[in-house]
Every structure is written in structure tokens, then in C-alpha cells.
Amino acid sequence: MTMTNEQTNRAVAQMTGDPMSEEEREPTAAEILEWRRDAVFLPEEDATPDEFPSLYNLSAGFMFGGMVRPLEPSPPEYVALSMPHNAGPEFELAVGKWNMLWESAQFRRRFFDVDDLPDQLAKLAELGDVNVTLVPRTRSRYFEYAPLMHLLPKRVLDMFGLPTLRRGQWPFMADNAGVDDFLPADFAARLTRAWAWTVWPHLESGSKMKAFSDDDPVRLLTHNLDFWVPAVTAVIQDRLRDFDEVDKGKTAGPVTLEDGSVLEAAVAGNPRKGGPVWFGEDDAREALVETVEAADRIGQLRGILDAVRSHRIEDDFSSHWSYAREDFERKLHGKRRKIKVTFVELTDTIPVQGPESEIVGNVVTNDFLALLDARNRQIVVLLNSGVTSKSEIAEMLGYASHSAVSKRLAQIRREAETFFDRN
Fold this sequence. Notes:
The two termini are about 60 Å apart. The chain is about 45% helix and about 10% strand. The chain folds into two domains: about 45-165 and about 185-315, no CATH class; about 340-423, Orthogonal Bundle (Arc Repressor Mutant, subunit A), CATH 1.10.10. It has helices at about 5-15, 30-40, 90-100, 120-125, 140-150, 155-160, 185-200, 215-220, 225-240, 280-300, 300-310, 325-335, 365-370, 375-385, 390-395, 405-420; strands at about 55, 65-70, 75-80, 130-135, 170, 255, 260-270, 275-280. It is elongated and about 115 Å long. The chain is mostly helical. The chain contains 16 helices and eight strands. Keywords: Plasmid.
């Protein structure tokens, strides 16, 4: 974030009483702090849904007369550099120019003489053709997650105690205001919760997040900002590729290197114009949907969600009701209802009836046996002892025919189905 010329002129006018005065005194520490704060925070009255949130891009045409575009850009990566305020303008300028060449992807190093780059950038350039975007390494990690932050509407920021910042910039260009000094100590944690709350309905539309346990895989995924950064970066770049080109007099064609050779798998052309990547709540909402779609395309999001839903366990849910839990229990109970209750011949045992009668196997249990009346319990025990003929059971229990035994077996089956479905 940078201070605008208007803000600078206003500050000078306030100090001197004459914006055109040649006599300028050194600003006080309080005045500098106020300028920085003004460059970081957006006034409440300006955070309107029509204009907030927003993310902007600065055209590479301000610095470069042409662009090299790989036919197959390699996936972008972020590298956090140590960038102290005393690093000097040369270092900041080199980082800004490096990032401006985002469309050159892995070929951006070819715009620079390695000997002219600061040490940290020279080491990256010496790695070869790598597609790296640079951000400052800060306590809050704001610059690493800035694209996600600037997708959130003001009501979500307020809900999670996040500040209303001026428009975002992608890729990173400079940090003249020192934004990290103004962010809460737990900024990353707040942003994580805010992002998870925002993206959750796009993954589990029928159930609220509180219906799932803290270690539910989908819930963990929504809180993993690092998972979402590649997706939102892809959305930004896709949108920027629709921008018109700056007329620098370049015609699309092969890229000729200094030694006269041609750079393979690349084409030369004009740089693109800059401007708003998204602007206002409606546009940001569409970008959020595109981010979810990009996460599916490059991060296999839907495959992950399908795998999780197909292998859910009861511990994935909290005590709150949800459609997902209801569906899970319906499927689970449906599988149980498909179990056919039958009586099979087990090993011969002495038919002893009592509260601790041992029935071997998964067909009946002691708890189920205790639910039966005396006659039905006798039938189960006899079956377990090896007496499987209805006529034999009827004779041993004193029935005139096996019809009564058949009726009681049907009753036992119904009770068994109800018992096992409930438990």
C-alpha cells in the first residue's frame, strides 16, 4: 500500500500552510504515524458495497516495453523474503519489477542481469526458469494472504474483528506504509476463521459449520489458507489475461535472446493494461465462486470433498443437528435394515436360561435376549443349542403344533430388526 500524491500534498499543506512552500520542516513522528495509518485504513464511509472490497493490478507497461509469455506457464509459487524498511529503494524497486512480470511466469528472470539484482533475487534467478512471486516476510503474513483478505465483504471483516483496509494490490509492489505494524497480533487466526466462514457455504450448502467437529476434514480444509492461495492466484491471473494490451508497438512473435537464439515455447508481445481485478461486493462474490472452481481444477477440491463424504464417521459431527448428519444416519440405518435376521445352528450347548446366558455370534446379544418374554427366550436358547426343527421346539415347549412356534419366530425377527436398527 502506498501513500497517494494527494495524501502527501495534503499532509505538506497542513504542516506548512502553503503546499507550494519551499521551506519544509522535518515531519514529527506523530505526523508520520498518522500518514501511514491513513495509507493503510479505509474510512468507514468509503467502504460501500459498490466499491468494497477491491483488488488492483499495476500494468507492467509502466516499466517494460514488451512481454514474454510462455505457451505453458508453470504453476506460480510465493516466496517470502526478508524486506526490512532500511533495505533501500533499489531493493524494493527490483522486487516490484520482478513481480510486475507475472505474465512471463518462469521466464521473468530473463528480463534481468543477474549481476544487477540484489542478492536475494539473484539467488532466485540463478535457480533457472522458476515462476516465483515475491512477498515480504511479516509477522501477520498479510501479504501472503492478501488476495483472500480482499475478497471478504465488510460485514465479515467486522464479524471477525478484522480491519477495513484500503484496496489490495496484486502482485506485491511495495510496503511504504508498513501495514504489519497496524494489524492485530492474531491477524492470521482471525483471517483464517473469516475465510472459512465465507467459503463454507460453497462446500457444504445444506449444513452449517458448527454441525461438524473441529477436526472434520472439510472444516480443516476451509481453515487452510495455504490451500486456497494457489486457487485465488489462478483466478486473478485468469481475469488479468482478459485485459487489453498496452500499445508498445510490439507484434506477437518469437522471442529472440541476446545471443540470437530463440526462446522455445514462448511468444513476445505487448504488456497488458492494469486496473481492478474485482471491484465491489458483487464482483468479489463472483471471484469467490471462481476461486472455489479453481480449487477444484488445480487442487482436486471436489475429489477431496467426495472422498470425505463417502467415508464420514460419527466423530466428524458435533452435537448440532444438520442435514449432513441426518443423511449420514439414514444411510447407516438403511444398511442396518438390510440385515436379514435369521437363526442358524451354532455349537451344541446346554439350554440354560438366565440373565447371563451366553449367545455366541452377532445375531443376538444378551441385551436383546433380556427384552424377550420367557417363551421367546426359550425358543432362542433352544435354537442356539442345536434344536432347529420347529416341530421339535413345539414338542419340547408343549405346543400342540409348530404353528405357534412359527408365529413366535416371526415376532422374534421383528423385535430383532427393531433392536439392531436402534442400536
